[in-house]
Amino acid sequence: xxxxxxxxxxxxxxxxxxxxxxxxEATEERVEMVKIWCMYNHILxxxxxxxxxxxxxxxxxxxxxxxxxxxxxxxxxxxxxxxxIREHQSELNQQSH
Length: 97
Description:
The model has no long low-confidence stretch (mean pLDDT 92). This protein has one domain. By secondary structure, the protein is mainly alpha-helical. α2 (28-46) packs across α4. The protein is built from four helices and no strands. It is elongated, with a radius of gyration of 17 Å.
C-alpha cells in the first residue's frame, strides 16, 4: 500500500474534476462537500432503512442539518455553474456567426 494519504491518486483527480464540473470550482472544501453529498446519496439509495435510522437518532440531528445544508449549497452552486456554462455557450455561438 502507498504511504501517501490517497489510496488512488487518479481517483482523487476524478473527484476533483467532477466537483469542478458540478460546482464550477474544485476547492478542498467543495471536494469534501461533494464526497459527503455522493456518499450520502449512495447510502440513501442502497440502504434507505440505514439512513432513516441514522436520521432518527437524536445525537445525529446536527450532522443531519449539516448534510441538508451541503445538499442545498451544492444544488445552488450547480445551478450557478449551469448558468455560467449556458452564458459561455451563448457567447461562443454568437462569435461563430
